[in-house]
Design a protein that fits this description.
- The protein has 2 domains: 268 residues, Glycogen Phosphorylase B (Rossmann fold, 3-Layer(aba) Sandwich), CATH 3.40.50; 196 residues, 3-Layer(aba) Sandwich (Rossmann fold), CATH 3.40.50.
- The relative contact order is 0.10.
- The protein is α/β, with parallel strands linked by helices.
- The chain contains 17 helices and 17 strands.
- The structure holds adenosine-5'-diphosphate and alpha-D-glucopyranose (GLC).
């Protein structure tokens, strides 16, 4: 099959969160299974160009609409760990992708709407006729709409469209001008069945457009698929998802074990595996030393996260204080998503600046993230909602015990040491139900208790976690089955 993935992120060259990991992992697995895989991304100024030695500009230019005019775009190509990637760079004063950041611009909807149309123009101009277009999140929500409304009389009309929802907290709610920007006629599209936003008269919902117009829609875990159809976690899209339930399903994300493997990880100080688990403690020592913490007989509790309302930041702070009061150390690696959160955590960072047991690092730092997964004993993930979550999967792979709220993909992958229905060898962490201080304490208290009182059991729990299999193998096969189903229709 010829599969084109169109996405705003792909690790390691551009990654804000798990979407970047997802694209890298799925694309590699599909290519490994013999499919012809290509990726289309914006040419951000912040791409990791150093990781693409063959990066070059193609001779061909394309033209794509931007309101009344057509903008010329340069196309670049580069390989990312063997994956064929194309990058679109509009030549215009808007400087859509030269902003020093991936998201958070006032014109995000226009930037990614332009990118969506330009991606289709690129495929058309270069004579590509992919079997499958696989698009992701609100940023590419207009691609299915455009494919159906504008490109039906072109060779691209054969392509089937799979659309994956990674986070309903971001829907790309905007105005009708964004439709006009890409050459769509707003009047017939802004209806409740199509792109109209549910509680904003005249508002356009790009994510909803993607759901309505795609041939198949997935989200990133079965439990989240249920939650967004049946609870307020659907964030206004419950009825749209229920209307389209025959073409909707949850597929659990995989993890790229060539990137996330303590036995081969080039970024961590000491490699280890389940047979050499004792060597994990050298990583704990190295982490303490790097962060200036004392070397004591206490577990290291950690957070690796975007600092965002979705992730339960208040409960992270509660967990920090609870851990420090209960014979544990605490390490937080987090990048704040807004100014208020940044200030809150800077104040906390100040408070613990001279602590021998607690450190907060407020940035996105890929290498330090690997050190934390390898060096910590536990990771706290108190998410308000979590479509899949990769940090618990990574932590488990490194023998670091997840303590998570029972929601979304966390509920599908973490099984409580005391209460899960699973046999003991499948239990791999701690879960709690309520988004409250009591909830977080109930998980953390039990984990700390086991570490201090029953080290042999704690070790066994680590081994259970390391043995859980979340490789891309099975998940990619699910996507291949969906693609085949679409091509046979
Ligand atoms: P989300 O996509 O909602 O942020 P996921 O759990 O799916 O959550 O994925 C998060 C990814 O981003 C993981 O690969 C995690 O290691 C990484 N990550 C999160 N915060 C940081 C940080 N501050 N520094 C480095 N990596 C981070
Ligand atoms: C989103 C979700 C996260 C998921 C990731 C990759 O960022 O917040 O839960 O793991 O996408 O699908």
């Amino acid at each position: 099959m010829h599969i084109v993935l169109i996405s705003p992120e792909c690790a390691p060259i551009v990654k804000v969160g798990g979407l970047g990991d997802f694209i890298q992992g799925l694309a590699k697995e599909l290519q490994h299974n013999g499919h012809q895989v290509e990726l289309i991304l914006p040419k951000y100024d912040t791409l990791r160009y150093d990781l693409m030695p063959d990066f070059h500009k193609l001779e061909e230019q394309i033209w794509s609409p931007c309101y009344e005019e057509y903008l010329p775009c340069d196309i670049y190509a580069g390989s990312v760990e063997g994956l064929h990637c194309f990058f679109i760079e509009p030549q215009s004063p808007h400087q859509f992708f030269d902003r020093g950041a991936v998201y958070g611009q006032p014109d995000d909807a226009e930037r990614f709407a332009f990118f969506s149309r330009a991606s289709l123009e690129f495929l058309l101009k270069t004579g590509r006729q992919p079997d499958i277009l696989h698009c992701h999140d609100w940023q590419t929500g207009l691609i299915p709409v455009l494919l159906y409304e504008v490109f039906q009389d072109t060779p691209l009309h054969h392509a089937r469209l799979c659309y994956t929802l990674h986070n309903l907290g971001h829907q790309g709610v905007t105005g009708d001008y964004v439709l006009r920007l890409v050459g769509l006629e707003p009047a017939s599209l802004i209806t409740p069945e199509r792109l109209a936003h549910h509680d904003n008269a005249g508002g356009v919902n790009l994510l909803k457009g993607g759901i309505v117009y795609s041939n198949f829609v997935t989200t990133v875990s079965p439990h989240y698929a249920w939650e967004i159809q049946n609870t307020e976690l659907g964030m206004g899209l419950q009825s749209t998802l229920l209307t389209h339930r025959d073409k909707f399903g949850g597929v659990l994300n995989g993890l790229d074990y060539s990137v996330w493997n303590p036995d081969t990880d080039p970024l961590i100080p000491h490699t280890y595996n389940h047979e050499r688990l004792n060597e994990k403690m050298h990583n704990t020592r190295a982490l303490r030393e790097r962060l200036g913490l004392q070397d004591v007989h206490q577990p290291v509790v950690s957070v690796v996260s975007r600092l965002d309302g979705q992730k339960g930041v208040d409960l992270m702070i509660h967990a920090l204080r609870f851990a420090l009061a209960n014979h544990a150390q605490f390490v937080l690696l987090g990048a704040a998503m807004d100014e208020g959160t940044q200030q809150t955590f800077e104040a906390l960072q100040q408070e613990f600046a001279t602590s021998a047991d607690c450190r907060l690092v407020l940035e996105h730092n890929e290498t330090l993230a690997h050190w934390v997964y390898a060096g910590a004993d536990m990771i706290i993930i108190p998410s308000v909602y979590e479509p899949c979550g990769l940090t618990q999967l990574i932590a488990m792979q490194y023998g670091t015990i997840p303590i998570v709220r029972h929601t979304g993909g966390l509920a599908d992958t973490v099984f409580d040491a005391n209460y899960a229905e699973q046999a003991f060898e499948h239990r791999n962490g701690y879960t709690f139900n309520d988004s409250t201080a009591d909830g977080v304490e109930s998980g953390l208290r039990r984990a700390l208790g086991l570490w201090h009182e029953y080290p042999d059991y704690f070790r066994q729990l680590r081994l259970n976690a390391m043995n859980s299999d979340h490789s891309w193998n099975a998940s990619a096969q699910h996507y291949v089955n969906i693609y085949k189903h679409l091509l046979n229709k």
